[in-house]
Amino acid sequence: MEKWFNVGKIVNTHGVRGEVRIISKTDFADERYKTGNKLFLFMPESKVPTELIVKSHRTHKNFDLVTFEGYDNINQVEIMKGGILKVNEGQLGSLDEDEYYYHEIIGCLAKTVSGEELGKITEILSPGANDVWVIKGKGGKEILIPYIEDVVKGVSIEEKTVIIDPIEGLLS
């Protein structure tokens, strides 16, 4: 069974020449939307994805604007609104050391260097200079952990664990 990974959601059209407005869920927008790349469109009412080839990409405000080969007017792309763009596992590139895909981190158990279990990582936020990992702690309390060297001391994808050295005030 093929594994699929979200790249972005088509939220609207842009102009009349077949451009779609995408809210990206990828750190690699320039790579994912590169001319000639293959993306798969998953629509809520369809069980089979539609294969799309990227024709052009640009950014505008907080959106990625993309056109696809064979789709050159608004009428053809209007039906794509609400669709999720995905890539399959074979399309994931390799990362440098200490770099991880979101799906590898979400679900990991976070522990302190002293062994105290904090909870599971449920979400990753990308507000600015560094990512912030959201941990669902005891009693449902959310703990926000910045992904910086001073705090995150170790990640084991195989064991699904993350070791954290909380700086003062981080857990209170």
Question: Which secondary structure elements does this structure contain, and how are they paired or packed?
Answer:
Elements: E1 4-14, E2 19-24, H1 29-32, E3 38-42, E4 50-60, E5 63-68, H2 74-77, E6 84-88, H3 102-105, E7 109-112, E8 117-125, E9 132-136, E10 142-146, E11 152-156, E12 161-164
Parallel strand pairs: 7-12
Antiparallel strand pairs: 1-2, 1-6, 2-5, 3-4, 3-6, 4-5, 7-8, 8-9, 9-10, 11-12
Description:
With 172 residues, this protein is mostly beta strands. The protein has two domains: 4-89, Elongation Factor Tu (Ef-tu), domain 3, CATH 2.40.30; 102-164, Roll (SH3 type barrels), CATH 2.30.30. It is 7% helix and 44% strand. It is built from three helices and twelve strands, in the order ββαβββαβαββββββ. It has helices at 29-32, 74-77, 102-105, and strands spanning 4-14, 19-24, 38-42, 50-60, 63-68, 84-88, 109-112, 117-125, 132-136, 142-146, 152-156, 161-164. The protein is elongated. The mean pLDDT is 86.
Could you say which overall geometry the principal axes of the C-alpha atoms support?
elongated
Major beta-sheet overview? 6 strands, antiparallel, barrel
> Under CATH, the topology of the largest domain is which?
Elongation Factor Tu (Ef-tu), domain 3
Q: Which spans of ≥5 residues are poorly predicted at pLDDT below 50?
A: none
Strand pairing plus helix content: what structural class?
Answer: mainly beta
N-to-C order of helices and strands: EEHEEEHEHEEEEEE
Total helices: the number is 3
Rg from C-alpha positions? 19 Å
CATH hierarchy, class of the largest domain:
Mainly Beta
Which percent range fits the helix content? Answer: under 10%
Architecture per CATH nomenclature, i.e. the level-2 architecture of the largest domain = Beta Barrel
List the domain count as a whole number.
2
The beta-strand count equals: 12
Determine the strand fraction and express it as a percent band. Answer: 35-45%
**Strand arrangement in the largest pleated sheet:** 1-2-5-4-3-6
N-to-C span: 43 Å
Within CATH, the superfamily of the largest domain carries the name RimM
The overall pLDDT, averaged over residues, is: 86
